Amino acid sequence: MEKVMGYLRLNNMTILQSFITLNSLYLVFVLTAIVFEFEWAEEMTRRFASHPYGNDWVLTVQIAAILLTIGTGLVLMASIFYKLKLKKPLEILMNASEKISANDLGFHISYDSRDEMSELCRAFEKMRSQLESNFKAQWRLNEERKQLNAIFAHDLRTPLSIMKGYIEVVTTYLPQKRISEEKLLDIIKTMEMHIVRMERYVEAMNSIEKLDNFPINKQIIEIDALINFLEDGASRIADQCGKSFDSCRSADSTKLFIDKDLVMQVSENLVANGVRYASSHVKVHYSVRNGIFSITVTDDGSGFSEEVVGKAVLPFYRGEAPDANENKGLGLYICKILCEKHQGFLQVANSTRGGGKVTASFFCRIDK
Questions:
Q1: Euclidean distance between CA atoms 303 and 348, whole angstroms
Q2: Rounded CA gap, 284 and 310, in Å?
Q3: Which value, to the nearest 10 degrees, does the dihedral of the CA atoms of residues 316, 317, 318, 320 take?
Q4: DSSP bridge pairs for 110
Q5: Rounded distance, CA 269 to CA 332, Å?
Q6: What distance in Å separates the CA atoms of residue 238 and residue 324, rounded to the nearest whole number?
Q7: How does pLDDT run across 3-59, given as a tens digit for each residue?
Q8: Where is 361: in which H helix or E strand?
Q9: Among 202, 358, 207, CA closest to 284
Q10: Of 238, 309, 313, the residue nearest 268 (C-alpha)
Q11: For residues 52 and 331, what is the distance between their CA atoms, to the nearest angstrom?
């Protein structure tokens, strides 16, 4: 069958072209057969002209033979058309549908032809690839959510245990009047502090929940205008903390397709994080290369330890910052999530000079 397809070059034809070609061959076959049948009928008519029973039966047989030829030709042509142009791609698509229904996306759809069925298979493969990508993203999101819930539960366990212990002390000794008023007030203040701490955790969890529905509103913007806007915000953050600030930039284009507000939020978080760890100076490098806009924040602090480099983007991880107890530990985690929503990524490392170095990247190519 493949030799027939190669000989007729049906692989390079559309379905309509293949149908017309096979119908033309069918017509040639049928008309040739009918011509031979007419010649046979004329010969039989002459041969049985003087026969006692006559030759009227010849016409009936001739009509039956013509109808049989036409019917056989139609069945043969339809069978060949189905086997050459429809059978293989339909089997491929049916098998793919069954695998997708079973949540099995680890396969590829390939059909080597140039007709509409090949286009359909390519469209199906594109859909499968997108489903696989979405499935992996959803799986990754679920894993992160499990991790987040585990971290949240772990961090809440300490203040709850402390408060439980204070409650036991109060309920045990207060009826016996063995707790002084000063001690009781001290316990109440400590419990209040832990209640505020838990409230902050709940607020943090709510802010993380909102990230899933964070809208991405991209627009075309001039690079210089965006960087000037980011530099102004970064400079203000550094000034408020008494740290010096400078920046540099490099770009291979003049415009970006980007969500300005999202990038601004990530930039402010990174600069605030850098200022918190810096000794006296923070530097920001803005770069545009191959459709990727990157913001690299470097500080002159002591840098990240190996443990912190691996955990810095985890939610509620506060590291070794001076204000670690007050910091929620969500800055870099939120930056990571926002970068990924903008088809980018976040990298945490140490600079060659020893300070911390965090890079946020965003896909910003303008499709032509």
A1: 10
A2: 22
A3: 170
A4: none
A5: 7
A6: 19
A7: 554 545 666 778 888 888 888 888 888 888 888 888 888 888 877 777 666 667 778
A8: strand 356-363
A9: 358
A10: 238
A11: 109
Q: How far is CA 291 from CA 28, 135, 217, in A?
A: 58, 26, 17
Alpha-carbon distance of 75 to 77, in angstroms, equals 6
Token pair in block for residue 91 = 């089997």
Q: Which three-class secondary structure state does DSSP give residue 297?
A: strand
Q: Are strands 356-363 and 292-299 parallel, antiparallel or unpaired?
A: antiparallel
Q: Which residues, 6 or more positions from 104, have their beta carbon under 8 angstroms from its beta carbon?
A: none
**Residue 254 to residue 176: CA distance in whole angstroms:** 76
pTM of the model: 0.54
Contacts of 112 (CB under 8 A, 6+ apart): 11, 118
Over residues 186-210, the pLDDT tens digits come to 888 888 887 877 776 677 667 666 6
| β-bridge mates for residue 243, sequence order | none
* Tokens describing residue 282: 């923070």
Tokens of 207: 């802010």
234: burial class by Cβ within 10 Å (0-12, 13-18, 19+)? Answer: buried
Q: And the tokens for 78?
A: 């339809």
CB 81 within 8 A of CB 87: no
Amino acid at 235: S
Burial of 184 (0-12, 13-18, 19+ CB in 10 A): middle
Pick from 162, 151, 166, 159: nearest CA to 197: 159
